[in-house]
Amino acid sequence: MSNDQELVLEQTPCLASESNIHASQLHILPQGNHLLSLMTILRDSKTSVATFADVTERVGDQLINAALDLLPIQETNVLSPTGVEYQGAREAVEVCGVSILRAGASLENSMRRGYTGPLSFGKILVQRDESTSLPTLYYSKFPVGISSKVVLILEPMLATGGSAGAAIDTLKQNGVPEENIIFVNILASRSGIKTLFDRFPSIRLVTAAVDEELTPKYHISPGLGDFGDRFYGTHA
After folding, report:
1. Can 226 be counted among the known catalytic residues?
2. Quick one: CA dihedral 31, 168, 190, 71, positive or negative?
3. Which of 37, 50, 97, 182 could form a disulfide with 111 if both were Cys (CB 3.0 to 4.6 A apart)?
4. Annotated active-site residue in 44, 61, 169, 229
5. Cα-flanking dihedrals φ and ψ of residue 50, to 5°?
6. Mean pLDDT value of segment 160-165
7. Could you confirm whether 211 is annotated as catalytic?
8. 3-state SS assignment for residue 187
9. Looking at domain 3-72+91-232, which CATH architecture does it have?
10. pLDDT of 202-215, one tens digit each?
11. CA–CA distance, 35 with 16 (Å, rounded to integer)
12. Catalytic residue at 132?
């Protein structure tokens, strides 16, 4: 059994029982062979920028699909080409994807491909002081009426939870209820998950993997490095 598979089997029940975390609010993607192989490519320090970006979108598609499954649908009947009525459904909830810049923008294409209902986007710029790990909000821009939308926060990495918390605070200040916020994430630390649910017990979180440790500099370990640098090719 792989390390990632062990994380899901052993950590998920433990995480869901701690603090204010409920199993219905924490969603870790099923650790199948395909996802594990994609995550291995992302974690490999030798992976090229082009491959890293491509694999990010493949994982992003799985994450967005899992997040969208949490939303209600509207019953809709259509007439099939055979002339038979089909009792189906449509995605009708107004959704806003809010990227925490700059890395969060890497998940926007997956969101555009995935959601067939009314969709808009917002941006938040939060920068973390590398010595203190404390976040500072520099910029935010949201569509009109965001308080009535379901918001998917797009952020590949959840380390300490500081930047994520600042983003959620900003959304709440703009009238978005906690229960309408879904945090979509590629890799989370155990402590970051706990921090978010301690502060915001009504949010939901969808992630592809959970790592146990943080380094002394508050980076996820084993992690996958600086996501933005690897996605955009700006690392040294």
Report:
1. yes
2. negative
3. 97
4. 229
5. -65, -45
6. 89
7. no
8. strand
9. 3-Layer(aba) Sandwich (3.40)
10. 999 999 999 988 88
11. 22
12. yes
